[in-house]
TrEMBL record:
Keywords, comma-separated and alphabetical: Membrane, Transmembrane, Transmembrane helix
Entry protein name: Uncharacterized protein
Domain of life: Bacteria
Taxon lineage: Bacteria, Bacillati, Bacillota, Clostridia, Lachnospirales
Transmembrane segments: 12-30, 184-208
InterPro entries xrefs: DUF6709
Organism: Hungatella effluvii
């Protein structure tokens, strides 16, 4: 029995490893290089660097001389149809290399950016000799094209003169993105990867520490009159209705994920096949015990029906099949439900006619 359980648990563990690998691989495929850029950190913009070769990379810059804004980006609310300011782009001067380029920041930083512009104007008017405050930004080094490039060049010409266009790099730092992905999507991807890794590590620890059998051990500790030999004997004569469910005379054994578990058949009062399609689809053998606990075992209709046939033959105290009236009785009058079969004398159950109940519940 334990070897069989270990074999199936190992198979499920391998499935979890493969699933985790697929999830992590899919996340990296979706994010492209963005996650790697984020984890590595931004590359500082330095004097003399190859600005063209840096296109698309994750960069950082301490902006000291912020001259003016050159474009505003709005977005339309699809429900209200109202326009809302989203981002504002500014052109800055990189004194160490003698170039201008753009930075785009969220509109929520407008007041802060206006103060930097005022400081820069004071520097241009020689009211101050040096600026000490800096605006640290990081984002994707992106080429200016189309209207963005046009507005950028027009604003530099209006503010400083056309002769300064030779010093204007056709690039800007998009602070809303890392590579091709937004920060929000990066954080979501990292969270998914972290959860997949935690799930995998947890599964491996549970497997290699023997925790997959802890429910069996816990049951034996709680029932000192039952031995492992008793479980082994019942399992040996049990019927395997699926790769993870075995129905014996005294116990129903199952593998759930990487755990081996069992149910005492004598405590089961109701069983039927449950099916639901759609987004939250489910196909399961549902069992209910004397403590009104529900146990949902993943099974196809064929597998569940096979198990229910065994219960019908070997566990006469169980109600087998589903009707809406049965569910209402179970919920509202549990003792009345037990009186249907569980509380009836054994001799009555032997001669009682089969109740006309369906094996499955209507699809929800």
């Amino acid at each position: 029995m334990l070897e069989t359980f270990k074999k199936h648990v190992t198979k499920n563990l391998i499935g979890r490893i493969v699933l985790s690998a697929i999830i992590i691989g899919a996340v990296f495929f979706f994010s492209g290089k963005s996650i790697l850029m984020f984890l590595k950190g931004p590359v500082p913009i330095t004097a003399g660097m190859d600005y063209d070769a840096a296109e698309g990379t994750f960069v950082s810059f301490d902006a000291q001389y912020i001259i003016d804004e050159y474009v505003r980006q709005t977005e339309r609310n699809t429900d209200t149809k109202k326009e809302k300011l989203k981002n504002i782009s500014y052109f800055v001067y990189y004194k160490e290399d003698g170039y201008f380029f753009g930075i785009e920041v969220p509109s929520s930083q407008e007041e802060e950016m206006n103060q930097y512009i005022d400081d820069t104007i004071s520097w241009l008017n020689e009211e101050v000799s040096e600026l000490t405050n800096v605006k640290s930004v990081k984002g994707t080094w992106t080429a200016l094209t189309g209207k963005r490039l046009q507005y950028y060049q027009e604003q530099i010409t209006d503010d400083l003169g056309a002769e300064f266009l030779d010093m204007a790099l056709p690039y800007y730092i998009d602070t809303n993105n890392v590579g091709e992905r937004t920060y929000v999507s990066i954080y979501i991807c990292l969270a998914v990867i972290a959860l997949a890794i935690i799930f995998l590590i947890y599964s491996l620890v549970q497997y290699f520490t023997g925790s997959s059998q802890k429910k069996l051990k816990k049951y034996l500790e709680a029932n000192p009159t039952v031995t492992m030999e008793n479980l082994e004997a019942d399992f040996a004569s049990a019927t395997a209705v699926s790769g993870n469910i075995w129905v014996g005379r005294r116990w129903t054994f199952r593998i759930a994920g990487i755990y081996a578990d069992l149910l005492e058949n004598k405590n089961l009062v109701w069983g039927y096949y449950y099916y639901r399609s759609g987004r939250h689809s489910e196909s399961a053998l549902r069992l209910y015990d004397i403590n009104q606990h529900e146990h949902s075992l993943n099974a196809s209709e064929k597998q569940a029906t096979a198990a229910l046939n065994i219960y019908k033959q070997q566990q006469p105290h169980m109600v087998i099949g589903y009707q809406k009236d049965l569910e209402q009785l179970y919920r509202k009058d549990f003792q009345g439900f037990l009186n249907l079969r569980y509380n009836r004398p054994a001799e009555e159950l032997q001669t009682a006619l089969d109740e006309p109940w369906n094996y499955t519940n209507p699809e929800e």
